[in-house]
Amino acid sequence: MMNISVSDDKQETGFLAAEKGAQMINEAIKKKGHATIILATGASQFEMLNHLVKTGIKWSKVEVFHLDEYIGIPLSHPASFRKYLKERFVEKVGNLRKFNYIDGNADDINSEIERLSDLISDKIIDVAFVGVGENGHLAFNDPPADFETEKPYLVVNLDEACRKQQLGEGWFSKLDDVPIQAVSMSVRQIIKSTHIINTVPDVRKAEAVSCALAGPVSTLCPASILQNHGSCHWFLDKDSASLLPEKFS
User: CA 225, 166, 171 angle in degrees (round to 5)?
Assistant: First the structure.
């Protein structure tokens, strides 16, 4: 079931996404005594994370899995997603139960993938906070994405559209600096999540949003797989929703 919320601006979009996600996290904590979530990064998540850390969740009862990370980027690099999440989330909540970072700069990337896959394989993910790329990607699963692999994490190749998005968002000074590979959570692992909060503001995401929501489910638009999820909540602003057919308004 797809639930779609369209706000006037990205600040409200992020606020509403965080509020809904916090409600779901608190429900899991009340039911089980703890919660396990997934966090995404990127410019689309700024406002959502800014509010999520202020929602009063008992973070000591929450375990987090990192969605994706570049290969070969150290923690000190401005584009490091570990750095992003450490500064924008982990340091602000303070007493988190556990955060499972992806070390994209590990000496043995295959061993790092095995470590993360072992950690997540027996977990029930209560809430996955995700976004959608300009090319329709989900995590770093660029088109044509692998909808079949059961591997929780895998090495993926980043296409030019994805790499140009990272450059355009200001994370790198030139295209040649953007890595060509990353470690990403797989599509099937993401959609195993009980609830999905998908925060997608900005006009540059309008085509991808239209493809994912109004088009067919296809590996050529990886985020379209979310049409099949039982509890996926889309949080858009009027710009990212601008190309959707009227039936979605």
Answer: 140
